[in-house]
Design brief:
Blueprint (H helix, E strand, L loop, with lengths): L1 H10 L5 H25 L34 H12 L23 H9 L1 H6 L3 H9 L13 H11 L11 H45 L13 H7 L1 H24 L17 H7 L4 H4 L14 H8 L18 H15 L1 E2 L4 E2 L22 H7 L4 H5 L16 H10 L9 H13 L14 H4 L2
Antiparallel strand pairs: 1-2
Helix pairs in contact: 2-8, 3-7, 13-14
Length: 465
């Protein structure tokens, strides 16, 4: 023991007070900071805001009190159902559509007059009623649909719904912003402290290494020298069998990847370009359940499915000027403002003024980006597959009703088409064209179910001529 102490004193005092304190500080920081970070981030340690804190909880939409309609009472909940069924196609609560905005309309007209107007507005206009004539003129002489089936109680319910106070949009307060900033600052401080601890540990390891080397040198410790040996690469180069096997493996692997790369030339599967106007198939075909052939009507009678004209879009969007869907729905990927701005692009292209409900005549073309594009030497007819064969659109285009951005679902290669012809049974029931050919081919192949390939759909001339 005395020899060890003597040697340590000879090398130098390596257990000084300053180094002991530094080591204790590093250890304490190592164990205390993670627990402190965990305590800060634990949801169970959150404290309630002080009475003077600026952070407040926004009231829900249901907390708003509805104003009672003037001149009568009604059930706003039932009125909402009646409004959506009878009125929503031409009216909105807070924006003009085919007709004027209806929020607060009960305070603008007499209740008895409202009953007559809703039951038969044309009759009231023909009677010369000045208020009815003025309203008819202000709305571009558009006649309102008569609703004689609505009782006065139903109208009271609708007016009660239109008299509800518009929900207020709550914005974050300054206290919430400040609170978020403080949390970020504390996290930055913790990460900085942990980085400092790591640096201290590295420095300590370097000092310990230097100390041990000095102790070894003071005791005359000599490290044995390693005998020079042959490198791995030289040993590998001398082994001709390994070199031959490696060359064969590299040749096979490179041929495999080269073939795979060449087979992908011209294949644009999953190609999903950005269109000039964003169109969500998920909302239109999925949530709203619009049939594919309503927009792509040419697919039933033509070789091409066709790009729907903007007039088809305006059949619905003439009265849908803003997105009103549920932001938490599985069909919605963007904000209400985003979808409403895309509808405005449609209005700009068609020259539709949603304020005056008229076309301005100023139109601009929409340069759609083509997604599916077969080579010129390939013949494909949509009507033959859709109308005659009864193939569903999803068979080739995938689950379009789940696509927010349209893409090429299938590879559209020759092998993919041939496999489909080999697997798809031809529907011969009720089709006189197939009666004779089906009976002959059924005898030839000895089966009643015939695929497209059995009828010659794999012949080259079917698609290449």
């Amino acid at each position: 023991m005395s020899i060890i102490i003597f040697n340590m004193k000879k090398v130098g005092n390596h257990t000084s007070i300053s180094r002991i304190l530094l080591f204790c500080l590093a250890v304490s920081l190592t164990f205390s900071l993670p627990s402190f970070a965990q305590e800060k981030s634990s949801p169970g340690t959150m404290t309630a805001p002080a009475p003077g804190d600026a952070t407040t909880v926004a009231p829900t939409a249901g907390a708003e009190t509805a104003a009672a309609p003037s001149g009568g009472a009604g059930d706003a909940a039932k009125g909402k159902e009646l409004f959506n069924t009878n009125c929503a196609s031409c009216h909105k609560l807070d924006a003009r559509s085919t007709g004027p905005a209806l929020r607060g309309v009960a305070d603008k007209h007499d209740r008895q007059w409202m009953y007559k107007w809703i039951h038969n507005s044309s009759e009231l206009i023909k009677s010369g009623d000045p208020e009815a004539v003025k309203l008819f003129t202000e709305n571009n002489n558009v006649t309102m649909t008569a609703f004689p089936q609505l009782s006065e109680a139903d109208i009271d319910n609708i007016l009660a719904y239109t008299s509800e106070v518009a929900p207020k949009v709550e914005t974050p307060t300054g206290g919430q912003v400040a609170q978020g900033g403080g949390s970020g600052a504390s996290e930055t401080l913790i990460l900085g402290a942990l980085a400092l601890v790591l640096v201290v540990l590295i420095v300590m390891l370097v000092l310990v290494n230097k100390t041990l080397r000095k102790v070894a040198a003071a005791n005359g410790v000599v490290y044995p020298e390693k005998a020079p040996g042959i490198s791995v690469w030289k040993a590998y180069a001398k082994n001709q069998f390994l070199v031959l096997v490696t060359a064969i493996l590299l040749l096979l692997a490179s041929s495999y990847f080269l073939y795979g790369w060449l087979m992908q030339v011209g294949v644009d599967q999953d190609y999903a370009p950005v269109q000039p106007i964003h169109f969500s198939h998920k909302i239109h075909a999925g949530d709203n359940g619009i049939d594919c052939k309503y927009c792509h009507s040419a697919a039933r009678v033509s070789k091409n499915s066709g790009i729907p004209s903007l007039n088809v879009c305006m059949n619905c969007h003439k009265n849908i000027a803003e997105f009103t869907g549920d932001k938490d729905s599985v069909y919605v990927d963007h904000s209400k403002e985003f979808y409403t701005a895309e509808i405005q692009k449609l209005y700009n292209a068609t020259g539709w003024d949603k304020t005056t409900q008229k076309y301005t005549g100023k139109t601009s073309p929409v340069k759609w980006v083509r997604i599916h594009n077969l080579p010129d030497f390939v013949y494909f007819n949509h009507s033959q597959h859709v109308s005659v064969a009864g193939v569903e659109c999803q068979k080739c285009h995938g689950p379009v009703e789940t696509f927010e951005v349209m893409k090429q679902f299938s590879p559209l290669t020759m092998g993919w088409c041939v496999n489909c012809h080999r697997e798809t049974d031809v529907k011969v029931e009720g089709n006189a064209y197939y009666e004779k050919i089906h009976s002959e081919l059924a005898k030839k192949f000895g089966k009643q179910k015939l695929t497209a390939a059995d009828m010659g759909a794999t012949e080259c001339g079917k698609c290449h001529y």
